[in-house]
Specification:
Elements: H1 5-18, E1 25-29, H2 32-38, E2 42-45, E3 50-54, H3 60-78, H4 90-109, E4 125-126
Helix pairs in contact: 1-3, 3-4
């Protein structure tokens, strides 16, 4: 299964916006049990160098925001910042605020992100 053209446009936009230098390893799926287990809708696993995001039954903008948040963490790692995903940490706050800015900017040009995703889930992608 493949991502939609809009999904790829968003990923390219975030990579350019954040000046990401290496190709992110992204896994997108519908495993709600995993989300419940990790108590999150997305996660960056630095030890595995993988981003996982739950698409599930979410509005496109919602899972895009999660993906943008995790891609900020990817960039933080590229910049050799010590990963600290604890609530309220500087790195977590930066990921939250940048993801929100990215979403609002992208949504101004692509208002279809404010609807439910019609595309089939994918197991993984790489840019």
């Amino acid at each position: 299964m493949k991502l939609s053209e809009l999904d790829n446009t968003f990923i390219d936009y975030v990579i350019e916006y954040l000046d990401i230098q290496t190709s992110p390893n992204i896994v997108i799926g519908d495993d709600h049990a995993k989300a419940k287990e990790i108590k999150a809708l997305g996660c960056y696993y630095p030890s595995e160098n993988v981003i996982w995001v739950l698409r599930g039954s979410r509005v496109i903008a919602d899972w895009y925001r999660t993906l943008a948040h995790e891609l900020v963490h990817w960039r933080q790692r590229e910049l050799n910042q010590v990963m600290d995903g604890s609530d309220g940490s500087d790195l977590e706050n930066e990921a939250n605020s940048k993801a929100a800015i990215i979403l609002r900017n992208f949504g101004r040009s692509f208002d279809e992100i404010y609807s439910m995703s019609n595309s089939d889930p994918v197991d993984s992608i790489s840019n």
